[in-house]
Design a protein that fits this description.
With 409 residues, the protein is mainly α. It has helices at 4-16, 20-31, 35-53, 60-70, 73-87, 95-103, 116-123, 128-144, 169-184, 188-212, 232-245, 265-292, 301-335, 337-358, 372-382; strands at 221-226, 249-253, 258-263, 366-368, 394-396. Helix 1 packs antiparallel against helix 2, helix 4 runs antiparallel to helix 5 (73-87) and helix 13 runs parallel beside helix 15 (372-382).
């Protein structure tokens, strides 16, 4: 009988194929093996699989997101355990790494590593066949992941544990409070005003960080934001609009379900918190708009929703950029434009160069709108207080700066 590693490799190869019966036969061979030996080999294989991803640009939240997307919530919980086990193999990790693990609830809850898979199976109330099938499925996802851009040094790399700069947590708390009010209000004009105020606070915080930074400029960093279906393109456009308003660059990897945002720390903070809130606000506005449609409308709901969210993203982007511009002009008058504006320009150049370095094969895309009613409703929902001419329903996207921009394949 082949050794257990060979059995796992055969099960993985079959899981990647299209022959369901072969996959089940290979899985059965694992099931009849010695549980202790099989579980130990699978645990070691899972830990090695995630460990190989860190030098290839992946981060814990990225891996968790794509496992949940491709395999489901239960395998994603297994992955969180694997991430916790992997963490014990590093003497030191950067603070942001531990923060990601905490956000995923990745912790060691089991008493005996040798019994982890058995304990996980009992915890999830699974039979052994289903449990092994899901372990193999997680391994198949991990092994198939391609390299991505290295945004921050992983554990063990040079500079990985460098001390973080000022967090601006008090300001972020104020912004989150404003956005929470914007998400909960039933008045679109109030939601827009609260969101614009949050953008102004973030822009002012970013400028304050620029003025306080007297040392050599850091290289722009990056974050990845999920753009899973449905309406992945509209979500990527929203990321792009929020990123542009905060002097960042965004590139959408639609096949991996995320957009990569590049920028300086304070600006990346702004993009993360604003995108998360605006996605909630946009979805709520879309559902209200859908309910208000004429009962006799024959248009498909999906096309309406997609057009609504695209229009919403574009119009919100205009308002966010206006808020940033107001704040920048006020700061330039107060601090002196000859001091502030060249620094902001140099940082924008650094972000652009970083994007060109990490994504040299970015392609262009084009936005196409198929439902005029959804487009009109989405624009109005994003800007109830001030009615202006809407953007055209088809808009050319700039290389590396549009929601359809994708890394070259």
């Amino acid at each position: 009988m082949p050794d257990v590693d060979a059995l796992i490799s055969d099960a993985l190869a079959a899981a990647r194929g299209t022959d369901v019966r072969l996959a089940e036969r290979q899985l059965d061979r694992l099931v009849v093996g010695d549980p202790a030996v099989v579980d130990a080999a699978l645990a070691a294989r899972l830990t090695r699989a995630v460990g190989r991803l860190w030098p290839r640009g992946w981060q814990p939240v990225d891996v968790a997101r794509i496992v949940a997307r491709r395999a489901g919530a239960r395998p994603a919980r297994l992955l969180a355990d694997v991430l916790a086990a992997d963490r014990r193999g590093h003497a030191a990790v950067p603070a942001w790494w531990d923060a990601q693990l905490t956000s995923l609830d990745a912790r060691v809850w089991w008493d005996d590593d040798a019994r982890h898979l058995a304990d996980w199976t009992a915890r999830e109330r699974l039979d052994r066949v289903t449990a092994l099938r899901e372990v193999v499925e997680v391994l198949a996802v991990l092994d198939a992941l391609p390299p991505v851009a290295v945004l921050r040094p992983p554990p063990g790399a040079a500079g990985a544990t460098a001390p973080p700069g000022p967090s601006g947590s008090r300001m972020l708390d104020r912004v989150r409070a404003l956005l929470a009010k914007a998400e909960s209000t039933g008045y679109p004009a109030e939601a827009e005003a609260l969101t614009a105020k949050a953008q102004e606070l973030m822009a002012r915080h970013s400028i304050d960080r620029v003025l306080l930074d007297t040392g050599p400029a850091d290289q722009p960093g990056g974050v990845r934001l999920g753009t899973d279906p449905p309406y992945a393109g509209a979500k990527a456009l929203l990321v792009q609009e929020v990123a542009t308003a905060n002097r960042c660059a965004a590139v959408w990897s639609d096949n991996l379900g995320f957009s990569t945002v590049l920028g300086f720390p304070a600006d990346l903070d702004a993009v993360e918190v604003l995108y998360t809130s605006l996605l909630v606000q946009a979805t709520s506005a879309m559902l209200r708009g859908r309910a208000e449609r004429r009962a006799t409308s024959s248009r498909r709901t999906r096309e309406y929703d997609d057009s609504f969210l695209h229009a919403y993203a574009l119009r919100i982007g205009e308002r966010l950029r206006a808020a940033t511009e107001r704040t920048s002009q006020e700061a330039a008058r107060a601090e002196g434009g000859d001091r502030l504006l060249p620094v902001l320009a140099s940082r924008s150049d650094a972000v652009r160069q970083r994007a060109e370095t990490l994504f040299p094969g970015v392609t262009q895309g084009r936005l196409t709108i198929r439902d005029a009613e959804g487009w009109s409703s989405g624009t109005a929902a994003a800007d109830r207080a001030v009615l202006e001419a809407t953007a055209p329903p088809s808009r050319r996207l700039r290389d590396g700066r549009g929601p359809g921009a994708r890394p070259g394949r």
